[in-house]
Amino acid sequence: MRVMGLDVGSKTIGIAISDELGWTAQGIETIRIDEENNNFGLDRIESLCGQYEVGKFVVGLPKNMNNTIGPRGEASQAFAEKLEKRFSLPVVLWDERLTTMAAERVLLEADVSRKKRKKVIDKMAAVMILQGFLDSQK
């Protein structure tokens, strides 16, 4: 069983997938969404679930530094509920504080251009969310 990690934003969702043993996370893609028009990319997620035989989701939960949940955190919780309803699979909300900044730092250190960073930052953040979860399971 593989685990899918998701970094949910207002315009995109970064997607990562675990290996079959649940040891490592790899970035798959970034999908565009339209929150205002209730288009959350669930059809594409469904396709990826079938392709990778996903058995669980890990959704990044952006908490505030004081551990409270703000509007983006509430949006992630609502997205997690949509996943549970549509796929009937377990969904884990994972504290994602600072993952996007960490992903940005990694890409900067690798000297990735701003234009290319923008294309992969969400996917990289999804990898960090999923890898954090996988490491906690050992």
From TrEMBL:
Keywords: Cytoplasm, Hydrolase, Nuclease, Ribosome biogenesis. InterPro entries: RNaseH-like_sf (IPR012337), YqgF (IPR005227), YqgF/RNaseH-like_dom (IPR006641), YqgF/RNaseH-like_dom_sf (IPR037027). Could be a nuclease involved in processing of the 5'-end of pre-16S rRNA. It comes from the Bacteria. Residues 1-103 form the YqgF/RNase H-like domain. Its main location: cytoplasm. It is an enzyme of class 3 (hydrolase). One of its GO terms (cellular component) is cytosol. It comes from Bacillus thermotolerans. Gene3D superfamilies: YqgF/RNase H-like domain (3.30.420.140). This is Putative pre-16S rRNA nuclease. It is found in: Cytoplasm. SMART domains: YqgFc.
